[in-house]
Amino acid sequence: MAADDHEFGGQHTDIKLEIVEKYLQRYSAALHTWCDAVWYIDAFAGTGSRTVRVKAKEGDLFEEPAPEYVEQRRGSAKIALDIDPPFDRLVFMDAKPKHIAALKALKASYPGRDIDVVRGDANDLIQKEIKWDGWKKTRAVMFLDPYGMEVEWDTLRLIADTKAIDVWYLFSLSGLYRQAARDMSKIDATKERALTRMLGTDAWKSELYSPIPPAIDLLGSLEREDVRQRAADVAGLERYVRDRLAQIFPKVLDPWPLPPKERPQRFSLFCAISNPSPKAIRLAEDFGRSIMRSR
Ligand SMILES: C[S@@+](CC[C@H](N)C(=O)[O-])C[C@H]1O[C@@H](n2cnc3c(N)ncnc32)[C@H](O)[C@@H]1O
Fold it and tell me: Which atom from ligand 1 is nearest to the alpha carbon of 79?
């Protein structure tokens, strides 16, 4: 493996990138018919490529055995650069210096394109920079593809406030169900803060957890203190996140479960629309349906 390789995700990563690419394709084609400034913003951009280790295969009656090999596939930044008609401007953010260097090299291989590569924490950058008058005449797709639970609710709220950005958000359900333990007493102060930062409210404590009445033994003494337990299963947690997003975005498409079939589900790929106009919502719904049909 080379020093600048970026190995992440699993088989579902190909599916995630395929879905986002299809949306970008449809979005760019449709929006360029009437809007002069159509942007792509990748807030957790990576390097522009993805290192994939393809497992060795044992041979059988029909096929020769194949050894393990490593290949480079396109990451989200490169996929967005290849969309035609091209985005008028692309903004790539990442916190890691090595990834920023790779993104700058990617930019250099697309001379003449309007590309900004910005190093920093995506939440800080978005929260500081996103308020802007120009959103009245500019439309964008933003991709939030963190490793885990890095996206803060305040970031999402400010994106929704632009009324101009469609956001694709890979939500880590496994991060949520690991932090939000079944037994509430197992959630320490750090986990509690992380959950509140991600969900934008501490109401999750009462909305996701219910008290189990104290148990009394035969002699009438208290066997178990009052405990609170999470009732929501994985599907319930996904519904909860979706409902939260729907409180700030006018439209949230049905999330794509990732991996699609293997259980437990680890991620939900959300697409949330910040433009409240019925036309923008209809368009996003049409894109979503056509992506669903094409899979
Ligand atoms: C899953 S990778 C993104 C992969 C990318 N979408 C692709 O398809 O190639 C997550 C990226 O987020 C970056 N990252 C992690 N925390 C960050 C933060 N707080 N702000 C900005 N970037 C961050 C990591 O350095 C990493 O490159």
Answer: 8
